[in-house]
TrEMBL record:
Pfam family, one: YjbQ
InterPro entries named in the record: UPF0047_YjbQ-like, YjbQ-like_sf
Organism classification: Bacteria, Bacillati, Chloroflexota, Chloroflexia, Candidatus Chloroheliales
Protein's UniProt name: Secondary thiamine-phosphate synthase enzyme YjbQ
NCBIfam families: TIGR00149_YjbQ
PANTHER family: SECONDARY THIAMINE-PHOSPHATE SYNTHASE ENZYME, UNCHARACTERIZED PROTEIN YJBQ-RELATED
Classification via SUPFAM superfamilies: YjbQ-like
Amino acid sequence: MPFQPDIVVENQNPIVTNGLSKLNGYHAVPNEPKNTSAQPTNAAVTQSGSYHCHSVQLSIETQIDIPNFTDITEAVRQVVTQSGIRMGTVTVYSKHTTASIVINENEPLLLIDMCQRISKLFPSDEYYRHNDFSIRTHNMNPGETPNGHSHCQHLVLSTSETIPVVEGQMTIGRWQSIFLVELDRPLPRTVSVMVSGI
């Protein structure tokens, strides 16, 4: 069963300036009027309006079983709802090199299978130069722990996922859940959620 955390939302920043989006000094092109005369079958109605960005940081404490999957779907869904954005995308991004963001099914036995396969692919008990503190000289911090396997596991997973937002809802599939995958050890983690659109 995936861990269901108390997720702390920090740093809410809706960013809008005169119909332009402003992101750290970069400006987007003003919105062009949308031509809605031709409507494809099964497509949502095109909406026009100002481009908006809504950015939230989620703080998550991961658990002891490594690797582990923390389901953050509902927290992301709440950010999308609170953004007020009707048409666009939501990007969920891990700010870590040993914790990934993935979309998969939240089925307990499958999660166990995935944890076992990730662990077998890059076992923690193999030799990693990154873990050899007698030769490693870069990015050494107080309390550094051997986690070369975690970085290697991250290579086959993803740092982010982007999901379409249609009519104010994530268009996530029936069996899809959004997970933060902890690959290192129990740590405080930060996940950036940005909703962009109109």
